[in-house]
Amino acid sequence: MGAESVWSVDPRTGERRGNEPVAVVSGPAAVDAAVRAAHAALPALADRARRAALLRAAAERLHAAGPELVAAADAETALGAPRLTGELARTVFQLRYFAGLVDDAAGPGGFLDVRRDSADPALAPPRPDLYRVKVPLGVVGVFAASNFPFAFSVPGGDTASALAAGCPVVVKAHPDHPETSERAVAALRDAAREVGLPEGTIGLVHGFEAGPELVRHPLVAGVGFTGSPRGGRALFDLAATRPRPIPFHGELGSVNPVLVTGAGLAAPGAGEELARGLAGSFTLGMGQFCTKPGLVLVPAGAAGDAFEKALADATAQAPAGVLLDARMRDAFLTGFARRAGLADVQTLAPAGPAATPDAPQAVRAGVLSVPARAALRGSHEALLEECFGPATVLVRYADAAEADAVLARLDGCLTATLHTPATDPDATARLAALARFAGRVLFGGWPTGVAVADAMHHGGPYPASTSTSTSVGATAVERWLRPVSFQTVPEELLPR
Amino acid sequence: MGAESVWSVDPRTGERRGNEPVAVVSGPAAVDAAVRAAHAALPALADRARRAALLRAAAERLHAAGPELVAAADAETALGAPRLTGELARTVFQLRYFAGLVDDAAGPGGFLDVRRDSADPALAPPRPDLYRVKVPLGVVGVFAASNFPFAFSVPGGDTASALAAGCPVVVKAHPDHPETSERAVAALRDAAREVGLPEGTIGLVHGFEAGPELVRHPLVAGVGFTGSPRGGRALFDLAATRPRPIPFHGELGSVNPVLVTGAGLAAPGAGEELARGLAGSFTLGMGQFCTKPGLVLVPAGAAGDAFEKALADATAQAPAGVLLDARMRDAFLTGFARRAGLADVQTLAPAGPAATPDAPQAVRAGVLSVPARAALRGSHEALLEECFGPATVLVRYADAAEADAVLARLDGCLTATLHTPATDPDATARLAALARFAGRVLFGGWPTGVAVADAMHHGGPYPASTSTSTSVGATAVERWLRPVSFQTVPEELLPR
Question: B219: which residues sit within 8 A by CB, 6+ positions away?
Fold first, then answer.
């Protein structure tokens, strides 16, 4: 009996691509082999200069392979060449960015977070010489996301930050882009070989069962995950119930509320501009962003009505498109229809199938509207939860108390956005209220687009994240390190 | 039906103290009330100057109440006035230390960990203005330890670091010192009132069932725990299986190995000095330290034999003493006898009852010795695990490979100690090997005594800790914070 095949599928048609599978499902032995090979690479990765070289070589090779990578990713995800070209550029930038962090790791503000104390026998208790530094956790398991075949997948932020920390990686490929995954891991492994690191530094496994196998493996020391609440929670539970539990840094979904105040709609043309901006943001990448604004609080009354109309118009003009796979398409259409069918919910723009000859699986975006008091009913909970895909829900509130009541019902979020003038006397209080349940708070603008930056935080209270960490930006590397204090160790014997 | 009573017990006699209970068991309603009162204090604690004032006022009041606190703690724990006076001084120092960290929180290296990025539209992806800062998690549940009625209990490091972070606290008192807990919380609440904070800022609950109740409470956002592997793991599991899981920072036990090399015993008198030092360390506080050296790797041969003899002599001279409670006394005597009865285990000093008229429950310290190859047998696993109380196990190794094999079998540890000359050519490699499973690595000296310092790390791989955090030192405060990024927020609207 041979191993099960892994096929690449064209989401535009739902058909398999080519006559050959692109990989085979990884059984327990294959997962074990990948983890052991990664573990064997740990000592070699202790050399920081080599780690930085690996990240730069990987960036170089991914950039060089750009056309082939983008073509494969577009064929598998239908995200389109322009978006995927941009995503690959981001991924290349991110690898170089983490290489720079490795260069600076031992300096002030560097991620080794070195702290020193000199002996002081007069203190109570007496203080010895102490040197604290961070060390790599060990092998990191990475679960690739469906919606970012580069930036949150094989060569993405989890992999880059783990390698920067000195942790070898085994990636569980997402079934929506196995060919892209194979091409990307080949580039990474070539880069490893080029800089004299073992190929096992980066492993790749395929298949549903490989996921739990990876999380349970005794040599896996931490996990990064981007995906759905259901899948993420199941793996979180596995990580927590191991004989030796390990950190599970999961990003599980977010509704990303936007609060538009009356004053935010007051300026001439403000409503139309916001409506255009929102339509662009919630349909970006066919709404398949973890930061998609999925719930927009809009005041009741004429200005809000005009905003609704402008949004319906802008949405009607958004091009139809294809979702990542058939399961997501079904979940999107079913989820939208279920919400649309709730009492007092009005459909401003109907999501639905929008087949073309080239893309029989295409869909169009949708917008719903509901009064806040209806949204607060127990029966209407789905309106306050993420609907993955190009849909958003307007919640019309009569007063600030109603808006606050809706916000108080939300789960933890990656982002929350406020649209109000800077002169709003309540602006500070509103921002503070949004920070209570979100990891990134925007004043104006839209939450889609997550900069790779020192001050970025991409995470939030559960279920946005399963930990207090970020998966994007400089501090993402902290997830894969633990501190060690060296006490009264002679200078010449301290780790570099 | 009234609430169940909580009595203070004299461990020297095993009898109840006084004619009145010191508290009542906290039922679900009492736990809920304490958590809600703490949650209501969150906004007031946002004022950092007030937090610092609270910590300083608490230090002042605990210092002033020193004689009464020490008398109560000695009566309940038998740890002795000198040790408890020192522990209280440490606790007072620790509160002031965290007050200083609050003063400096917003500055460079401060725990708010502020990071800023200015907009750069030329990057891919473009970077907006970003301001990242850390905010308090919410109400923190603290589980007091048996063995440190001050420093790791009501007014201890978890409480001090949580308050420093801006998190109100509800402490689950340890049943070994309920009177001390009541006195300490009164001092803390008086301090809160003095600085204009609600008394609910610090709550106290009693009773076994109050523990799970606290961990499950929806308004509890994080937990600090110091205690046994069994109790800690049960609570960790509860925290992980909540609908919204919360961070559980538990310290669950550690065997704290010491590696003595042949060269470490070579200098004249070195063995005798090490033996005296070890005897002092493993019997300190009747061996009831989480950092007690419980396993000592000693080379086979004449120098090791002389060390054994010197240790047996030093242990015989150690005074008998009383353990924290009857359950621990039973577990210690049973655990020692079980280990002593294993094949090829030699008893160098017999632990056992050592009653005096004043302290009928007193015990004496014990030492076992076993060849490394015997210790590696599956049947002998208990020798590689913590035995709480004044006992240590010498493991005699024939060569470095045997010593390494024993170290490789150990669970994660809080500390690991190396005794070898600085000229040992393998010293660096040995330190690195110890850092693989320990959170603090000592070159010489003994692991008991944990300085409150910027560079301290008191934690280690599971089960030493359930997370990568420390419960002592400056970075302990990181456990109770999460980052938030503010994007394109005008300067004047940013949180202070």
Answer: B35, B36, B38, B39, B138, B139
Which amino acid does the sequence have at A290?
A: C
Domains in chain A, CATH or no CATH each = 5-252+465-493 (3.40.605.10), 257-443 (3.40.309.10)
Under a CB-based contact definition with an 8 Å cutoff, are residues B78 and B11 in contact? yes
> Both tokens of residue B145?
């330890």
Q: Are A427 and A418 in contact (CB under 8 A)?
A: yes
Cβ A360 vs Cβ A399: under 8 Å? no
Q: Which CA distances in Å does B277 have to B72, B309, B369, B407, B421?
A: 30, 14, 17, 22, 16
Beta strands in B145-285 (DSSP E): 169-172, 202-205, 220-226, 248-251, 257-260
| Contact residues on chain A for B281, CB-CB shorter than 8 A | none
Alpha helices per DSSP H over A104-209: 157-165, 178-194
Give dist(CA B455, CA B452) in Å, integer.
9
Strand pairing report for B352-353 and B363-364: antiparallel
A133 vs B contacts (CB less than 8 Å):
none
- Reading the block at residue B454, the tokens are 């910027």
Peptide bond into A463 cis (omega under 30): yes
- Alpha helix stretches (DSSP H) within B341-492: 372-375, 400-409, 427-435
d(CA A74, CA A70): 6
Q: Would you list the DSSP string of B55-97?
A: HHHHHHHHHHTHHHHHHHHHHHH---HHHHHHHHHHHHHHHHH
pLDDT of B378 above 90: yes
Report B:129-158 residues touching A (Cβ under 8 A).
Answer: 130-132, 135, 137
**If contacts are CB pairs under 8 Å, which of residues 400-459 in chain B contact chain A?**
411-412, 422, 427-428, 431-432, 435, 438-445, 449-457, 459
Q: What is the CA radius of gyration of chain A?
A: 24
**Residues B433-460 pLDDT 10s:** 999 999 999 999 999 999 999 999 999 9
Check whether the bond before A125 is cis (ω within 30° of 0).
yes
Q: What's chain A's average pLDDT? A: 97
- The answer for A 323-382 residues in CB contact with B (under 8 A) is none
| Cβ atoms of B92 and B157 closer than 8 Å | no
What is the pLDDT at residue A1? Answer: 45
For B454-478, give one letter per residue: b (16+ CB within 10 A) or e.
bbbbbbbbbbbbbbbbbbbbbbbbb
Residue in A93, A128, A457 closest to B485 by CB: A457
Could you give the ipTM of this predicted complex?
0.97
- Best CA proximity match to B234, nearest among B223, B221, B220, B218: B223
- Chain B residues with CB under 8 Å of A483 CB are 439, 457, 459, 468, 470, 475
CA B328 to centroid of chain Cα atoms: 17
Residue A496's pLDDT is 73
User: Phi/psi at B469 (nearest 5 deg)?
Assistant: -95, 175
Inter-chain CB proximity B495 and A432 less than 8 Å: yes
In this complex, is the C-beta atom of A306 within 8 Å of any C-beta atom belonging to chain B? no
CA dihedral B461, B465, B468, B471 (to 10 degrees): -140
pLDDT tens digits, one per residue of B327-371: 999 999 999 999 999 999 999 999 999 999 999 999 999 999 999
- Host H or E run for residue B275: helix B270-283
Cβ-contact A69, A92 below 8 angstroms: no
Instruction: Give dist(CA A123, CA B449) in Å, integer.
Output: 12
Q: Which SS3 state, helix, strand or coil, does residue B117 take?
A: strand
Tokens found for residue B78: 């038998």
Contacts of B130 (CB under 8 A, 6+ apart): A451, A453, A454, A455, A456, B115, B116, B117, B485, B486, B487
